Amino acid sequence: MGMGDPPKYPLPKIDGDPFVLLLESQLKRDSGRCEAWKDEVNNLLIFVSLDFAPRPKADIIFVRRPVFSLQSSLRSSSNRTRG
User: Fold this and answer.
1) What ranges do the domains of the chain cover?
2) Both ends of the chain: CA-CA distance in Å?
3) For residues 69 and 75, is the Cβ–Cβ distance under 8 A?
4) Highest mean pLDDT range out of 1-10, 13-22, 51-60, 71-80?
5) What is the distance, to the nearest Å, from the Cα of residue 29 to the centroid of all Cα atoms in its chain?
6) Rounded distance, CA 81 to CA 48, Å?
7) Cα–Cα distance, 73 to 78 (Å, whole number)
8) Against a cut of 0.70, is the pTM above it?
């Protein structure tokens, strides 16, 4: 194959600027990714906000009551062993 010979696999003829066509395809792909990431981040933010949302007092009392009853039972048992 010499320098003046036609290429074995020639490039196809494209209407328009190939760089513009490439840019458009990349922007389309990137915008799809960004939308997917935006949806994922929104879902994560909703999940986190639910986790840190203020809880009703009844919920807090329900969670703390077993701890306080355990502490009081430990105190009473330690008082019995000392006396």
Assistant:
1) 16-52, 55-83
2) 106
3) no
4) 13-22
5) 20
6) 46
7) 9
8) no
**In the block, residue with structure tokens 């999940």:** 47
Half-sphere exposure of 38 (CA within 13 A, CB side): 6
Q: Could you give the CA distance from residue 83 to residue 78 in angstroms, rounded to a whole number? A: 9
3-state SS string for 4-65: CCCCCCCCCCCCCCHHHHHHHHHHHHHHHHHHHHHHHHHHHHHHHHHHCCCCCHHHHHHHHH
Residue type for 38, please?
A: K
3-class SS of residue 3: coil
The amino acid present at 62, given as its one-letter code, is F
8 Å CB contact between 1 and 8: yes
pLDDT in tens, 31-45: 999 999 998 988 888
Structural tokens at position 72: 């009081």
**CB 36, CB 43: distance < 8 Å:** no
